[in-house]
Amino acid sequence: MFGFHKPKMYRSIEGCCICRAKSSSSRFTDSKRYEKDFQSCFGLHETRSGDICNACVLLVKRWKKLPAGSKKNWNHVSLSFSLSQLYLCYI
User: Residue 81, SS3?
Assistant: First the structure.
């Protein structure tokens, strides 16, 4: 009657692998389904995986609908996390 389903998760210990949000009014999901698009969508030079928040999932979906040849990306979303990690390395 009812199949097994993964419970909805509104908090993440590690945070979103893109923006590092640790809680959200909407759910977190596994990033495997979206990882192939991270480099182009968020301008990443490294691989990221883990939980992804619904806001970042929606950005990936919006990026996929852009016209062919568009250079638009959402690197400012992942850039703030990258810079904060770089800063922590030098403290």
Answer: helix
Tokens (6 digits) for 18: 């893109």
The pTM is what? 0.73
Q: What is the pLDDT of residues 6-54, one digit of tens each?
A: 666 677 778 899 988 888 777 889 999 999 999 999 988 888 899 999 9
Give the integer Cα–Cα distance in Å for 62 and 3: 30
Whether residue 37 lies inside any domain: the answer is yes
Distances (CA, A) of 59 to 5, 71, 87, 90: 25, 14, 26, 31
Task: Decide: 56 and 16 in contact? Cβ < 8 Å.
Answer: yes
- What total of structural domains would you count in the chain? 1
> Is 3 a domain residue?
no
The single-letter DSSP state of residue 44 is -
Domain of 72?
Answer: 9-89
Structural domain contains residue 1: no
